[in-house]
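Intended use. Records like the one below are meant for learning the mapping from a protein sequence to its folded structure. Do not use them to infer anything beyond what is encoded.
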Amino acid sequence: MSLMQGKRGVIFGLANDKSIAWGVAQQLHEAGAELAFTYLNDALEKRVRPLAESLGSNVILPCDVGSDEQIEAVFSELKERWGSIDFVVHAVAFANRDDLKNPFHQTSREGFQLALDISAYSLLPMTRYALPLMKDGGSIVTMSYLGAIRAVPGYNVMGVAKAALEASVRYLAYELGAQNVRVNAVSAGPIKTLAASGVANFKEKLRIMEERSPLKRLVTQDEVGKATLYLLSDLSSAVTGEIHYVDGGFSIAAG
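Structure written out for the chain above:
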């Protein structure tokens, strides 16, 4: 498959082979894209590097998305190596475990700021530093969840962060359309990831999802990857500012 042949881009947020980002990476690789990856720290590098190398990537860079300087350094390295890029995948989110476990009204100020900073604000500097490298236009995709538009018990401050993320997608899409840069989000159904383990009663949420969705099953990494591939490719050349649901129709059933 050559849908992404000749295109290059970077994926932020790969943690392990259960990550949504891994499903995205596999689909992009199979479609012919050349990929760069980032990792947060030494412990995660040990997981990320073998996965990245298995897809032929030799651009594997450290990046704490809470630092504008580190984000800028990633794109400086990409400019040095490639000159230009075609896409960015923002698959990053974080909240303190206590702020997910405790009632939402008990969220600490520091915890609120941290969740919004890592999960939503980080999309802005990524976009800012990616733009000069998107010389012929490009596509940026981030990852959201139903908790952005509905109150999902246990999702708490992360739902607020995802709401801010989705609003950011719309504002960025409006601003960047004239530069032929598209910005969209994929709102995936619940998937067993490392991040999801911090959400209270997650197994019960999986059961409810399976029971109530029109497809009567959970979505997979591959399906989220395929949806993201569509939004990053020329197949979606007129699509921007959209929240693309990949949840088995649960958002409809839950309405």
